[in-house]
Structure formats: structure tokens, C-alpha cells
Amino acid sequence: MTDRPTTAPAPAGEQAPAAATRVLVLNSGSSSVKYQLLDMRDGSRLAVGLVERIGERTSRLKHTPLAAGGETRETNAPIADHDAALKAVAQELSRDGLGLDSPELLAIGHRVVHGGMFFTEPTVVTDEVIGEIERLIPVAPLHNPANLTGILTAQALRPDLPQVAVFDTAFHTTMPEAAARYAIDPKIADRYRIRRYGFHGTSHAYVSRETARLLGKAPEDVNVIVLHLGNGASASAVRGGRCVDTSMGLTPLEGLVMGTRSGDVDPGVVFHLARVGHMSMDEIDTLLNKRSGLFGLCGDNDMREIRRRIDEGDEEAALAFDIYIHRLKKYIGAYYAVLARVDAVAFTAGVGENAAPVREAAVAGLEGLGLAVDPQRNAVRAEGPRLISPESARVAVAVVPTDEELEIATQTYALVGKNT
Ligand code: AMP
Questions:
Q1: Residue 259 Cβ contacting ligand 1 at under 6 Å
Q2: pLDDT tens digits, residue range 104-136?
Q3: What is the separation, in whole angstroms, between the first and last Cα of the chain?
Q4: Using 50, 70 and 90 to split pLDDT, how confident is the model at 9?
């Protein structure tokens, strides 16, 4: 386990060192790094930013020092790799006195997409942890290598600081075998680690807990269906704070119709495209992951644009919307059956938080299940968690904004800060 620096008592007459209460959250993609620096005394954001197009001819760094007035600074210069990107981020943070060398920085929390069955909780990074994240690359070829690069780069910059990996899959490891297993030969499934892992776990964990708080109840007492509808989209059934089913599977391709992913298709479609369409595996992968979903159906993956086209009478956009809603409704019904008793349905992420027509259509006709949306409440635009079901509703329908960075920081702080 990485050693944390110990704080020696301050000699008499000198000021005691500031308590380390800041957590830097890094979300490293293949050519980008998103980051936030938070003060965990109150969860406030001190700085947020993004480095894009790493390794390309012109990269972009956008940095907003919220603690220092909040004026966004943008630099456009080539940034060769993640090492250079993180150094540039550290430099920006230093300009506002928030640098990586600050004694107030407690730890760095990393989003890691795939933790397999091994990681059920946030974990302090050690060589063993790095080895296991590496071993999971075959099941997350796009994400885990980028996440690892972020960890190794941060480790090189601050070897003395605890690095914490927070896994997208961890919240779903409580799923019972009946929900997590595919109906295929277990020997083959085990050999190739094929099972339903689920993703967006940090968001599902945060939103289910916030929904309980909105209802004024403890998470253990609440059953929630969480609908994380962003460009990627997933649903989960959460019983008493524990995930019992989720719509994404071995990869994020399964489940709901998404921005560019098909979600559920008959696996026979893949054989058909290979045998009859003579498409290669890579071509089919690209088709289903990048050129399907809303984008594949109507050429747009932004729900704002799709609604605008529907308002103008565009039939292609209307059909794409209907297919999206039909699938969503099926999952609400399925998870209602899985949970048996549902206290709340929570909408979150870009579409879930902003698209009132999606929320309305998703629960339309489900009054028999106790689900309804109050049109006035649904139309209100607001920042925080809010109820959109009528006062008398049997099941609460809510909009609960997600905050994956805060959740990563909270989990990191809970793991590392408790020893402070
Ligand atoms: P996310 O992946 O959570 O960042 O969500 C991104 C998606 O949210 C976009 O592709 C849009 O489809 C959707 N979105 C964002 N803002 C709005 C809005 N005001 N109305 C409808 N959809 C929105």
C-alpha cells in the first residue's frame, strides 16, 4: 500500500501545518483528462478543468479556478502525452496557489472504468492494484489503459501521495448471480471473465443515495430505479442502497438506447452482419458502439436537436425518440418487477436532468404502477434534486443531478482521510 506522508508535530512557536483536506479527481480518457480539485471539508470545488486532444497537433487546456474568481483560462498548445498534460494542469493549479505540491492536498482520486469482480470498493493504488487493472484491459480495451496512464503519471509527479482508484463497476458487484450471469456455459464465461459488470456505478451510487435523502429516508429503507440518461445511458435497480440489477453488461453496449450505442440487440445481428453483410468484427463494433443509438436512427445524438426536429414535424427524429422511450419504459417495468416495491424513480445525467419530454414520455401510461409526472413540476428548470411526481403519487418520480466527481472525491476522502 502507498505510504502516506506522516505529519510531524510542529515545533513550538511554529504554525501547525494545514490539515490536508483537498482531493484532486482525475478522469483520464485516451486523449483527454478531466479534473476537479475539491475541498472535502464542505465538498466545494476549488478548480475544474479539461485537457483535450492530447497527442494531437493542437491541444486545449481549459481551467477554471473557482476559488480564485472563476475566470476560465484557455491555452491552445501542443500537449504530447498524459505526463505533459498533468504537468500543465499542475502548473495552472499552482498559479492560483493550489498546486500539486500543496500540503493541503490529501490524495488523488482516479476514475477507473473496469474493476471486474476484484474491486468492490475504492482502493488505494499499489503495484498489485495496477497489475489487476492491467489484467482487465481485455474487457475494457478503450478505457482501462487511459485510466492507468493517468494513475502512473500522477504517481510519478507525487510519489508520496495516496492515489485512489474508484471503479465504475464497483457499485454493481452486489448484483446477485441470477442478474450478473449470462445464460451461457459457465466454464466459458469464467475462462473469459464474461458476466454482467455494469457501468456508471459511481453515478448510480450517488444518485440513489441522494434520492433517499430527497425522500427524507435512509438509503437502506429505499428502493430506487435510477435512470442515468447521458450520451451513454444505463438503468439500475437499487434495493436498500445495494444494486441488484443494471442494464449495462460485460461492456457498456448492453441495455438502453444511447447517443451512439444500440443498447440491446439480438446477438444474432452480429452473426448476420458478419456472414451476410461481410462486415469485419471491427466494423460491427464501430457500427454498434459509435454509429447506432439515436445517432444511427436519425443522424443526431443530442436530445435537444432531436426535440427541435420533432417540433418541426421530422418523422425520422420522432421514430428515434419513440424507440428510445420504448426501451426506457421496458427497463422501468423490468426493474419494477425485480424490486417488487419501488419508492422512487430518479432521472439523472444530461438527458435525464434536462429533457422534460423524455421524463414525461418514459412514465406516460404507467399510472397502474403508481408512476406519474406532474406537468408543472416537470417543466421547472432547477439545479438541485427535486420531485416531479404529483403530491399524492404512490411512487416518487425525481430529477436528481449526478455528481460523479464529488462521489469519487468523497470515496477517496473516506478511504484516505479517516487516517488523518
Ligand atoms: P452527459 O453524457 O450526461 O453529459 O449528457 C450529454 C447529453 O445530454 C447530450 O448529448 C444531450 O443529448 C443531453 N442534453 C444536455 N442538455 C440538454 C437539454 N437542455 N435538453 C435535452 N438534452 C440535453
A1: yes
A2: 999 999 999 999 998 999 999 999 999 999 999
A3: 16
A4: very low
CB atoms within 10 A of CB 380: 11
Q: Which domains does the chain have, with CATH numbers?
A: 22-167 (3.30.420.40), 217-404 (3.30.420.40)
Cell of 60: 486545449
Ligand-binding annotation for 43, yes or no, is no
C-alpha cell, 373: 409526472
Q: Is 104 exposed, middle or buried (0-12, 13-18, 19+ CB in 10 A)?
A: middle
- 300 as an active site residue: the answer is no
Pocket-testing residue among 229, 258, 302, ligand 1, by greatest number of atoms within 8 A of Cβ: 302
At CA 97, angle to CA 96 and CA 103, rounded to 5?
150
Per residue in 298-325, pLDDT (tens digit) is 999 999 999 999 999 999 999 999 999 9
Do 349 and 358 form a contact (C-beta atoms < 8 A)?
A: no
Cα distance between residue 257 and residue 292, in whole Å:
9
Helix (H) / strand (E) element for 347: namely strand 344-348
Pairing verdict, β 344-348 and 223-229: parallel
- The cell for 389 is 411526481
Question: Taking a C-beta distance cutoff of 8 angstroms, is the pair 235, 228 a contact?
Answer: yes
The one catalytic residue in 39, 101, 160, 168 is 168
